[in-house]
Specification:
Blueprint: E1 10-15, H1 21-30, E2 35-40, H2 49-54, E3 57-60, E4 75-78, H3 90-94, E5 99-100, H4 107-122, H5 125-133, E6 153-157, H6 161-172, E7 176-181, E8 211-214, H7 218-225, E9 231-234, H8 248-256, E10 266-269, H9 278-286, E11 292-295, E12 315-317, H10 328-345
Parallel strand pairs: 1-2, 1-3, 3-4, 4-5, 6-7, 6-9, 7-8, 9-10, 10-11, 11-12
Pfam families: 2-Hacid_dh_C
GO molecular function, one term: NAD binding
Organism: Penicillium nordicum
């Protein structure tokens, strides 16, 4: 008997707006041996059952099939870094279909967004922008509190791919990095990044931090906040354990132990809004406990127009866009293409979600 006929994978790409023709070409080039269906989903209109039923591989953000339409699926790839928005879906609860994430692609744009906000604050960019609009040449407006980032201590809560790229860029500015992880990383090997990395970015071998800290309880977090940090970057997954992890007491510890003479600590949140007690953050900003905050996430989203966070002192808010860019979608599908190669070769998937872990 001859070899069994080759049956190509059927890759279903769910897109959330009308996909440009040139992007369709890029996608098809990534999966040359597969049948590819690109489905432009309409707001509020479910993907038809027959579209799901043909697929063996699904790439999506929020749209998942009913259980009866998922029987042919071998792999589901999500465009997001985490799966907290999918945790209650029957596909995750009642099947064993492998799930992979796009963790690793967010580092470059989010690191740029992070440092941009630091510099907007420390270099008083808004004052300059307003002065330019009013045709005003006033050097005196800049002088009080103007400072650079050299020698500042950056604490990164959650030293994954995003935190590692923030560390890389921060180090280039002359800052020192202090990493915090849930589990101990006592050896050089344990500090390696084992997830997907955009080539030429991040901290693959974990050599950038000046110190490593770990723990999952509040006391461990508070010990980390006591190390004299100038910046605290929040890059944690949202889980029951991390919900409202940072509140009034944590901000007070961070502030009291900071030694920099020109400014109070600056908090950057690029994870999920619920990791921070938002009322406590507003109070800390308005009372001067914190020197400022950059927030790409809030609780809730969208942030209501009358929420006091909008008017807190020295806060910079964006509507969950720090990861966006024309590179996002192709990079996400690079991970899927890599995993299809791994499936064919019988190798473990990269960026695989572990059920029960929450991320």
């Amino acid at each position: 008997m001859g070899d069994a006929a080759f049956v190509p994978e059927h890759v279903l790409i769910i897109f959330y707006q009308l996909m440009p023709v040139e992007l369709k070409g890029v996608i098809r080039d990534k999966f040359p041996d597969a049948e590819v269906t690109i489905y432009d989903v309409q707001p509020g209109v479910p993907v038809p059952s027959e579209v799901y039923q043909k697929a063996t591989i699904l790439a999506t953000f929020v749209d998942l099939p009913d259980l009866k339409d998922s029987k042919n699926l071998k792999l589901i790839h999500t465009y997001s870094a985490g799966v907290d928005h999918l945790l209650q879906n029957p596909i995750l609860l009642e099947t064993k279909i492998p799930i992979t994430t796009s963790s690793g692609i967010h580092g470059p744009p989010i690191a740029e967004w992070t440092v941009m906000n630091w510099l907007v604050s420390s270099r008083k960019y808004v004052k300059g922008y307003e002065a330019q609009k009013s045709h005003s040449w006033d050097k005196n407006a800049y002088e009080p509190g103007l400072h650079d980032q050299v020698g500042k201590k950056v604490g990164i809560l959650g030293y994954g791919s995003i935190g590692r790229q923030i560390a890389r860029v921060s180090q280039a500015l002359g800052m020192t990095i202090h990493a915090y992880t849930a589990t101990p990383r006592p050896t050089p090997e344990s500090r390696h990044d084992t997830g997907y990395i955009v080539p030429g970015t991040g901290d693959p071998d974990g050599s950038i931090p000046a110190s490593w800290h770990h723990g999952t309880d509040r006391e461990a977090i508070r010990s980390f906040l006591s190390t004299g940090l100038d910046h605290l970057v929040v890059s944690l997954p949202l889980t029951p354990q991390t919900t409202h992890l940072l509140g009034a007491e944590e901000f007070a510890i961070l502030s009291d132990r900071s030694h920099h003479h020109t400014s109070k600590p600056y908090v950057t949140n690029i994870s999920r809004g619920k990791v921070i007690d938002q009322k406590a953050l507003v109070d800390a900003l308005n009372s001067g406990v914190l020197g400022g905050a950059a927030l790409d996430v809030t609780d809730p989203e969208p942030l209501p127009k009358d929420d006091p966070l909008w008017d807190a002192l020295n806060v910079q808010i964006s509507p969950h866009v720090s990861a966006l860019g024309v590179e996002y979608f192709p990079r996400s599908l690079d991970i899927l293409a890599l995993n299809l190669e791994r499936i064919a070769q019988g190798e473990p998937l990269i960026n695989s979600y572990t059920r029960g872990k929450g991320y």
